[in-house]
Each structure stands twice: as C-alpha cells, then as structure tokens.
Amino acid sequence: MPSRRRFLSAASLAAAGLALAPIAACSREAAAPSAGAGAAPPHAAHPGPLISRTIPSTGETVPAIGAGTSGSYEIALDSPDFARLQDAVRVFFDGGATLFDTSPNYSTADAVLGALLAAGGWRDRCFLATKIAADDRAAMERQWAESQRRLQTDHVELLQVHNLRALDIAWPYAQQLKAAGATRYIGLTHYLESGHAPLVAAMRARRPDFVQVNYSVNAPQAAQTVLPVAQELGIAVLINRAFDDGKLFARVQDLTLPGWADDVGVTSWSHLFLKFAISHPAVTAVIPATGRPDRQADQLRAGTGPLLSAAQQAELVAQFA
C-alpha cells in the first residue's frame, strides 16, 4: 500500500473554490425523514452491535448499514450545514458503521467528505468507496487524481465503475489501480432496472469484487436479476435507492407500521425500508444518505436486531407494488 501523503485542509479546499452549488446525481439517495409511528428519538443509541456481512472475495467483514453522499453532502465547506454533517458523521462512526460511498460527479460531496474525515480523524476507520465516471483514459486519470485530492487520501477501499460508463476503458484502469495498491476492491454500479441485464453480463465477464444496484420495497427486481448472480459468483453487493429517492416516504405519510414491526425491532418506516434491503442474503450493505444526526441514528437502528422473514419481505413488496 502506498504511504499516506499530506493533503489540503478543508479551509484550503474552500478557498480553492470547491464550494460549488449541488447538482443532481443520477444515483441520488434522498435523505429520509423519520416517518411512521414510533420513530426513534433524535440521536437515540441503537440497541446492540450492527449486523456485519462478509465480502466474499476476501472474507473481510463490514457493517450492513453504510452511508452515501449524494445530495446530503453536496454543500459549501463554509456552510452552516457543515457542522451538522460533522455531528451526523460522528453518530455514524460512534454507532459502529464504517462504509461511505461517494462519487466525483456529486459536485462538492468528495471535498466535503474528505474534510469531514480529516477533521474528525475518521479516515482510518472508514471503508471508503468512490467511483470512476469519465469517458476516456486521460479523463479517468485526471478524475482519480482529483478524487484523491478532494478525499484527502492516497487510496480507497473500493473503486467502482459508475453505471458501467466506458466500461472497456474503465475496467482495465480500475484493475491497474488495484494492482498498484490504490484500492483494495473494484466494482461495478447501476441505479436503474434497465441497467440490470448489462450489469449481470458485466458481472459474469469481469468478476468484480463488488456490485452496487438499486433495490427497494417498490423496486425489488434486483432480487430476480442481480442478487442471485452475485450469490452464485461470490460478489459483494451494495444497495442504492432503498428509499426510491425519498418517494417512498410520501406513500407512507398516513400509514402505520405493520403489526409485526415490534417483533423485528422496527420503529420507523426508514428503519423498515433499510431492514428490507439487508434482509436479502446477497446484500452486503445499504448506503442511504442523510445530513441529519437524528436520521443517521435512526438509519443505524436498521442494522440491529432480527432481519425480516421471507414472508415479511413478500408482504412489503405486495403492499408497495
């Protein structure tokens, strides 16, 4: 592994003009309200340790609840929101979580996450995942150099080809970076059902360490497409869009939780939607984004206690079909 280098501080990043206005990201994970009956109080400690899952290619374990950065972390570094994010990240790591997923095309998110990890001294505790999202080799090399600068690190734990973009060029580059010790794992992502078939084809052809795919109670198709192939090939799985970009919360605004929610320790709809995702045995971790400490605490609760039975999962799919 290459030795760590010194990088710019958060203040110098801001001075460099990286405080750009947030832009829409294609795989955005909306921040989730603590919707539903019996929501956990703000910053409530979660009951017990987080569920861990094994990465098939190495046997390393990671907590099943991670975090994304799209939307919630796309702020100015000198914004008042930065302090609130510091509190949210502190809740995340204090709760035993480690996995953060980001991308260079989430406007300021990389710079913000890098500054947060540096300021809190959390980089060594973080399983850091980012992406390659460019169209040619030269652009990919520039993007990776910029990602290192913004994230304030010389390596990541996982480097993914974003939405299979320029895969024939990006995959050999990712393999080269892995061989050089710049990343421990490499992977592939997509965020739409229409991307499942090409993602499966790439999984069979490339044999990545990880895949990332959309999966939720109202979009469960990955359970019939990507997830069985991941189990067959021994590929770790990250889940995006578990809240369907926040749309699910509008649907449950006036609904109470299922009668069996207490039996599995569920106290909010956010908690239930995330527990649905990690209850599939192929899933390694789910990566919702939030910038609020109370919501971060609630999301961590989904990674504790019993998982949903097959019947409970089927009931949710039928309810939200």
Automatic annotation (TrEMBL):
Pfam families: Aldo_ket_red. Residues 35-49 have a biased composition (Low complexity). Residues 35-63 are annotated as: Disordered. Residues 68-312 form the NADP-dependent oxidoreductase domain. It comes from the Bacteria. Residues 1-21 form the signal peptide. InterPro entries: AKR2_Oxidoreductase (IPR053135), NAD(P)_OxRdtase_dom_sf (IPR036812), NADP_OxRdtase_dom (IPR023210), TAT_signal (IPR006311). Keywords: Signal. This is Aldo/keto reductase. It comes from Luteimonas flava.
